[in-house]
Write a structure and sequence with these properties.
The chain has helices at about 5-25, 30-45, 65-80, 100-105, 120-125, 135-140, 145-150, 155-160, 170-175, 190-200, 205-215, 220-225, 230-260, 265-270, 280-290, 295-320; strands at about 55-65, 85-95, 115. The chain contains 16 helices and three strands. By secondary structure, the protein is mainly α. A three-stranded parallel sheet has the order 2-1-3.
């Protein structure tokens, strides 16, 4: 691999890790551990090809206070611990004289690999070919962020506050003249919808798998179809969808398993209520074991859950031959 490409992939991974920390809301000492774990997960999933043996030095500069410096240092230390062959030369700076210094470095050809860039100066540097587009190396890693934080207890508590009696959802409805006596979580008709909405929100990992599968479809197939005069709907149903069926099959199995394993959302947000409208199988199993101390019954429920998941999995594998299309044929 060329050194320039290797450096770009490292830069993309570090930037995506830093983006995760800032989006999760790092800043206080109480959030340091959870955000560092989030950055680690993102770095692992965004780039898997930066584990070469070549020693690489990445120069990085930015402006800001001690909080920003600590956050950036944490990201770089984390990446260095995973990739010992990568070394970072960090040079934080104050706002005064920052862009004068950056302009001098650019003119002399010694511009750092990673810089903090104000949008007012972005166009100027881009026109001078001083910036590199890292989108192809990042691969839309932001899709994965809801999956990182979506299943945690902390986010479930936030979700509960949003849709509670004094939450943002009720406040917005009242502001536009829609007054409800009970909150979304207190209504048997809407409580389950809130749990489902949270599941949809954390669908990022599956979206990344779909995105990767879409990129693997040969572009020549689309070109041939367009030459033959195929319409967009025809192209989708005859090329895109059949080529995606292996990925759909894989994600379907995972989502069925995850659907039966729902626990945190139901337990933290609604505790199975109201009137057991959000009582999941695992939450019921938990109650039997740790509320009523009926361990034998709970153990039987666990084995039944394994059997149910096994039955659905076997059915999918037995029927995949009629709807899953493999490019090289199925053995």
């Amino acid at each position: 691999m060329k050194r320039s490409t290797y450096v770009k992939k490292i830069v993309a991974s570090v930037l995506c890790s830093a983006m995760t920390i800032f989006m999760v809301g790092c800043g206080g000492s109480g959030k340091e551990t959870s955000t560092t774990n989030a950055a680690q997960t993102t770095a692992n999933n965004v780039t898997n090809s930066t584990t070469g043996d070549e020693n690489v030095v990445i120069k990085m500069t930015w402006w800001g206070g001690q909080t920003r410096h600590d956050q950036t240092q944490a990201v770089c230390d984390l990446y260095t611990s995973q990739h010992p062959n990568v070394t970072f030369e960090l040079s934080p700076s104050g706002w005064d004289g920052y862009f004068d210094k950056l302009s001098t470095q650019t003119a002399s050809g010694s511009m750092p690999d990673i810089v903090q860039m104000d949008y007012l100066y972005l166009t100027t540097y881009a026109k001078n070919d001083s910036l590199t587009n890292l989108q192809e190396f990042i691969d839309n890693g932001t899709y994965y962020i809801p999956s990182i934080i979506g299943g945690s207890i902390a986010v479930s508590v936030v979700w509960k506050q949003i849709f509670g009696n004094q939450g943002v959802a009720m406040t917005l409805l009242n502001a536009i003249g829609i007054h409800q006596k009970t909150s979304f979580l207190g209504n048997v008709h809407t409580a389950l919808g809130v749990i489902i909405l949270m599941g949809v929100w954390q669908f990022g990992s599956s979206m990344l798998i779909f995105l990767s599968a879409l990129k693997q479809i040969p572009h020549s197939l689309y070109e041939s179809a367009m030459v033959d005069g195929a319409k967009p709907w025809k192209i989708f149903t005859r090329i895109t969808l059949p080529m995606l069926t292996p990925t759909i099959f894989f994600n379907l199995i995972l989502q069925i398993i995850n659907g039966f394993r729902v626990f945190t959302e139901s337990y933290v947000i609604t505790d199975g209520g109201p009137l057991d409208s959000t009582l999941s199988y695992v939450l019921y199993m938990y109650r039997r074991a740790f509320t009523y101390f009926d361990m034998g019954y709970s153990c039987a429920l666990a084995w039944i859950l394994v059997a149910i998941i096994g039955v659905f999995t076997v059915i999918l594998f037995k029927t995949q031959g009629s709807w899953v299309h493999y490019e090289a044929g199925r053995e």
